[in-house]
Amino acid sequence: MNRPIQRVSIAVIVIIVLLLGNATYVQVFRADALRNDPRNLRVLFDEYSRQRGMIVAADGTVLARSVPSGNRFKYQRQYPTNPNAFAPVTGFYSLRYGADRGLEAAEGAFLSGSDDRLFTQRFADMFSGRDPRGGNVVTTIDPRLQTTAFDALRNGQCDGVCRGAVVALEPATGKILAMVSTPSYDPNSLATQDFAAAERSWNELTDEDMPSRMTNRAIDELYPPGSTFKVVTTATGLAAGLSPNTRLTAAPTFPLPDSSASLPNNNGEACPGSTGGTVSLTQAFEYSCNTAFAQLVTEKLPGNPFDAFIGTAKKFGVGENPPGIPMHVASSTVGDLGDDKAALAQSSIGERSVRVTALQNAVIAATVANGGIRMRPYLVDKLQTADLRTVSTTTPSSVNRPISAEEADSIAEMMVKSEQQTYQSQSGIASKTGTTDPNRSGSAYAWYIAFAPSSNSRIAVAVVVENGNQGAESYGGVIAAPIGRAVLNAYTGGN
């Protein structure tokens, strides 16, 4: 063989080897990524030829289903029940934009029928000649409570369209009873098989000049929790050996350590009910006195106060990404405190760099309500085949015990007193409000975390509102509390 032919042969062999290697890489190592890429329309065409599974509420109410479309795409995704209220839970499934957000994305493999756990069903469908079908996702959502929370938040006292979130949990199990975010959207507008209409809806929903409606503010957004974080600070003190009767400063301002600045109480006033310039920890919590909590973490904690404060926050779940949602959850944080006691003092009242999701704050309230035991929150109760055979069921599980039963009882009693100091207070509720410094919109973040009944609690709730209509004075007790109470009462039958 002459040399030119030999070189050509070697080049051809190398090209063939490279092509085989690339084909192997694509088919073996990149297969899942390419299949799940929302731009892969071949997958969508294939999936729209089969009946995608349903997403249902705890009582069987259908939140998402596939119905015959009567055109070349055999099925049309449909969201039949108050779609705007349930959109943060369901997300959407679109021929134009794929499975995006919510359970449509998180449980996409099971809903489409490609999950390995549905192999037996796929085999049976093929053998019987039946069209392939996806599995059903049964959620923990109480549809009546979800609707109540959505309506209460949407109609709240806001500057324009309300921006905020509500999360309700069952303390004893961790079930997510409601997860609401406003403003919201109608998933049907994106699920339409009219590409032009879907694109118009997408452009409207993603308009940068409008508040994001597809953001799930319950789990995607991080907010400074304000005084609601005093629950964690109080737990830190009790775990370190302080008592509800520990005396703390009632001064109107507290000089921040190693700083020329000071931290004030609300309106710069002394804490009510003081004796000799001090109040008990219970009184400080009841009246939400900032200066008392700043002194607690900087002067009253034995040992390393940073380790104690950060350690307690971690025990409550701050910094974790709960695995049972199963959607992505932003990680709450207390920030990097280093050895800065001024930062520690500010963090003790939920300011500085402390950031939490509404879900995290609901977990904190639920942990106190559950006698100090933190349950893992979960949204999916069970997975079923199309024939309603249960494939898997979520079993409630505890994560840890951040505080003892006695400490939880003490904090619960403080939260009952706090509720009684809140505007339009209601008996039988244990709560804590929070009002932060003004945000970019000029409003405070208004918070309310609570549980009811105050003993043997059945529900815990967290509410956050970004744009209360009273600007910097959009207090949690005025803006967020009515929303939280509406949810609590809808579940417990209270006032």
From TrEMBL:
Source superkingdom: Bacteria
SUPFAM superfamilies in the cross-refs: beta-lactamase/transpeptidase-like
Note the InterPro entries from the entry.
Beta-lactam/transpept, Beta-lactam/transpept-like, PBPA_dimer, PCN-bd_Tpept
Penicillin-binding protein transpeptidase domain boundaries? 164-488
Residues forming the Penicillin binding protein A dimerisation domain are 52-137
Identify this protein by name: D,D-transpeptidase PbpA
Q: What is the lineage of its organism?
A: Bacteria, Bacillati, Actinomycetota, Actinomycetes, Mycobacteriales
Give the encoding gene's name.
Answer: pbpA
